[in-house]
Write a structure and sequence with these properties.
By secondary structure, this protein is mainly β. It contains six helices and 43 strands. A hairpin with a 3-residue loop joins β31 and β32. It is globular, with a radius of gyration of 26 Å.
Length: 760
Amino acid sequence: MKMKKITKSSGLIAITSSLFATGLIAGESVKVDSIEVYSPTALPTIGLPIKDVPYAIQTATGEEIRQQAGVSIADYMVNNLEGVTVNEVGGNPYQLELNYRGYNTTPILGNPQGLSIYVDGVRQNMPFSNNVLWDTIPDFAIDDMQLVGGSNPVYGLNTLGGSLSMQTKSGRTFNKSAIDGSTGSWGRNTGLVETGGMSDDQGFDYYAGYSYFQEDGWRKPAPSEVQQWFSKFGYEDEDSRYDLSYTGAHNSLVGNGMVPKYLLGDDLKGVHTLIDKTRTQYNQVQLNTTEFITDTLMASGNVYVRNIDQSTYNGDINDEYEPDEEFEGVINKTKTKQSAYGVNGQLTFDDDWQARRNQLIVGASFEYSKVKYKQTEQEITTLDPSGFFSGAREEVEQTTGLTGETYTSSAFVTNNHALNDQWSINTAARYNYVDINNKDTFNAPGSGASLTGSHDFDRLNPSVGLSFNPYDNLSTYISYNEANRAPTSIELGCANPANPCTLPTQMADDPPLDQVVAKTYEVGASGAFAGMLNSKMSWNVSGYSATNHDDILFLFVDDDSVAGYFDNVDKTTRKGIDVGLNTAFETWSLNMNYNYVRAQYGTDLTLISENNSSADGDGAIQVEDGDFLPNIPKHSFKVRAEYKPTTSWYLGATMTAFSSSYMMGNENQENDSSANGLQSEVPGYAIINLDGEYNFSNMLEGWKLYAKVTNLFDNKYYTGGRIAESRVAADRSFSDDEIATASLVGGSPRAGWVGLRYEF
C-alpha cells in the first residue's frame, strides 16, 4: 500500500520493512528494526529518517496529553517539553503565555509573538495580531504533536523561535467510542464524548467529539466555560487520502492579570480590578488531500475557511483620572470579527539522485483575512472593596474603529540529500510576501490619528544544515536558519510614542514598522544505548544562538497603566542549551530535561520605568546591550517519573522547576529594592504534579478511573511581575496618588480532580 509511506504532518512514526506485513499474513513472528521518520513540513510528506534532520524535535502523543495533569496542550508543554516556560498573566488556564527558547506565544491581544502554531497543516496564528487562541484548539482531538526548534523558514511566518505542529485523530487512529467526565477543585467539571470508526470496506472513516469545561476558577471571581466541537470525515484508498473536518468553539473566559503585591499578601487569589472577560465563537471548515501520483511523487494540500467573533470586557483604572474628577474607572469593551480563508499545497519528490537518497519538496500557500475591530470606553465612578467598578456611568464612547485586510503569499523549496551513508545535507528557502491594508472607520483621514494605511513586506529566508551519523546510535547536526515576522494590523495601529495605546488595543495611528528577521545557528546531537538493569536510555543535547533584527516590542509610557506603543529595537538575542535524558525500565520510566537560555537586549535603548530606583528625573532607565529580557527564567528543569507494573494501572509524577527572572520595569537590572522597597526579580519556584489511572479491564471492560493533582505541596509562587503603580490602596479604597508597587501574577494553588472514562 503506497499510503503506508505517508508521514503525518511533521509527525514522527516508525516505519518497518514489508517483511513485517508478510510475516503477519503468514502467521510468522518476524522481528525487524524500526526506523523513525519525520515530515519536514506542516503538511503530510514522504518521511525522512529522523537522523538526517538537522534540528531539534520534541514529540508527544494524544494519549500522553490526555493522561497528564492540566486542561490544555499548553499545560502539557510546560510540564514536559524542553525550553518551555509559562507566564500566567492571562489568569486563566486557557490563556497561558508560553515561552519557548525565549520566544512567546500567547492568546493576549497585542503581545509580540515568536512561534508558529499549526493544526492539520493550517496556521493558527491569527492575522490581526499573531496571537493563538488555545481555547479554540480541541485538545481532545489531538493525535500527536511536534515542537520544532529554531527559525526554520519552511514553517512560514512567525517561526522566529520554533514551530508547534499538531495532527488530529481520524476513524483509523481512534476506532472506538468514549465517554469521559471529571470533577474536583475550583468547581471544575469536564465532560467529553467522542467516537470514531470505519466503513465495512474500510474505505471511509469518521471521527467526532464534543467537550465541555466549566469552572469557578481559583481567583475571585474567574468563572469560565469552554465548549469545543471537532469532526472529521475521511476517505482512503491505495493512492489517496481525503479529510473534511470542522472545528467549532463557544467560550467564555475570565482572567485577571497582575496584582499589586500589597493586595495579595499570603492570598494569591486576590485581584486588582474586575472583571476581565473574553467571549469567543469560532468556526472553521477544512479539506485536506494527499495523493500519490507515482511511487516517488506525492501531492498534499488543504483549503480552509475560518470565522471568529470575539468580544472583551475589561474593568480598568481610568488613565485620565485626576483627583478633582468624579470618574475613577473605565470599562473598555472590544468587538473583533475575523474571517479568513487559505490554500496550501506541495509536491514531494522522493527519488535517488546520483545513486543517493534525495527528497525534494516544493510548495506554495495563499491566505486572506479580514478583520473588523471596534473599541469603546465608558467612565464609571467607584471602585468597591471587591475590585468592581460601580456607580454612575458616563455615556459609552467609541475610541477605535478599524477594518483591516491581510494578503499573505509564500513559496518554498526544501531538499534533503544523502551525501553518503553518514552525511546528509538539508537546504531550504522560503519567500514570504505580506500586504496589509488598514482603513480607519472612526477617525477621518488626515486627522493625525487615522489608522488608514497600506503596508507590504517581503523576504527570502534561507536555511542550510548538515547531519552526521557516525554510528547507528549516534546522530549529530549543525544548521543555520532565517525566518521573518511581518508587523500585524494591531502593531501598526499602535506605533506612535506620541499617541500611546492601551491593551487590548485602543489604537491611535498608523506609522510604519519594520519586519522582524530571526537568524539562528544551532548544533546538536542525540543517541541511545543500553543502560543498567536491562534499561533503554536515550539522550539529546542542542545549543543555539538566535538574533532578532528589528525586533518589535511593546514599550510602556508610564507605570500606572498598560499604555504604550510598539516599536522596533535594533536587536534582541537568545542563546541557550537544551539537554534531555530518557530511561525506560520494564515497569517504570524516568525522563529529565534541562534548559538554559540567555534572552537579552542586543542594543542600548531608553525605557520608561518611573519607580525603578535608577530612573532619572523623566522616569527613564537606560537599558544596555546584554541586559536580560524580563519574565524569562534562565534555567528550567523538569522530571517525569512513571510507574506501570501492569497494563491495568500506572502512577506518574512530574516536577517542574524554574529559576528567577527579572521584573518588567527592571530591564536594566539596576533596581535597588533597598532604596524603594520594590522587588527586582520574580522568585524561582518548583512544583510537583501527580497523575494516575486504573483500568478495570478484569472486572468492568472499558472503564478507567483517573485522578490528577497539581501543585502537590501547595507552594506559593509567581510566574511573572512588573514594577508598576496603582491607585488602589491596601484597604481597596481609591487613592488620589499613585502607589509604587511590584505587581505579580500568582501561580495556581494545590488542586485535584477525579474522573471516569468508558471506552467501547
